[in-house]
Specification:
With about 80 residues, this protein is mainly β. The protein has one helix and four strands, in the order E-E-H-E-E. Strand 1 and strand 2 form a beta hairpin. The chain starts with 20 loop residues before the first strand and ends in a 10-residue tail after the last strand.
């Protein structure tokens, strides 16, 4: 993991859990709650940018940008 990437996320008022699912080919997936996907107007097949990082206590975390734009893109 990239230990130089410092992240200070601001968390909203809610969160959800996503079970890890494996398919026959060995690929792992997580799911997004239907209410969250509907509220954010996410469509099936839309690509989301995901990154792996560590917090200050070295716990691994995954950051998923739900607007379909890569990290650092502002427009």
């Amino acid at each position: 993991m990239n230990t130089n990437w410092i992240i200070n996320p601001t968390f909203g008022m809610f969160g959800w859990t996503s079970p890890v699912q494996k398919n026959r080919k060995g690929t792992s997936r997580i799911t997004i709650n239907k209410l969250i996907a509907t509220g954010l107007a996410l469509e099936s097949g839309q690509k989301l940018y995901c990154y792996v990082a560590q917090d200050k206590t070295e716990r691994p975390l995954m950051v998923v940008y739900l607007d379909g734009k890569p990290r650092g893109e502002t427009s």
